[in-house]
Amino acid sequence: MNENNLKIWALGAEIVGGIAVILSLGVVAYELNQSNVQAELNTNALEISA
Questions:
Q1: How far apart are CA 3 and CA 44, in angstroms?
Q2: Alpha carbons 23 and 37: distance in angstroms, whole number
Q3: Total domain count for the chain?
Q4: List of residues 6+ apart from 1 with CB closer than 8 A
Q5: For residue 35, is it within any domain?
Q6: Model pTM?
Q7: Does the residue 4 lie in any domain?
Q8: Distance between CA 41 and CA 33 in Å, rounded?
Q9: Could you tell me which residues come within 8 angstroms of residue 9 by beta carbon, excluding any fewer than 6 positions away?
């Protein structure tokens, strides 16, 4: 491989890595939201049963 091919591969890997970071942050945000919803439902259930 020559230097230009390596630069192209490095740029592609950097783009893919950036997209992977963004997607994983989205998954974490979704899971935090689900956790908050579940905590709210649990609180409501405890209030109803009390």
A1: 62
A2: 21
A3: 1
A4: 9
A5: yes
A6: 0.72
A7: no
A8: 12
A9: 1
Radius of gyration of the chain (CA): 22
Predicted confidence (pLDDT) per residue in 9-44, tens digit = 999 999 999 999 999 999 999 999 999 999 999 999
User: Which domain range does residue 47 map to?
Assistant: 14-50
Sign of the Cα torsion 21, 27, 33, 39 reads negative
- Rounded to whole angstroms, how far apart are CA atoms 49 and 25? 36
In whole angstroms, give the CA distance from residue 16 to residue 10: 10
**pLDDT attached to residue 50:** 78
- Sign of the Cα torsion 26, 32, 38, 41 reads negative
Q: Strand (E) positions, 1-50?
A: none
Residue type (1 letter), 24: S
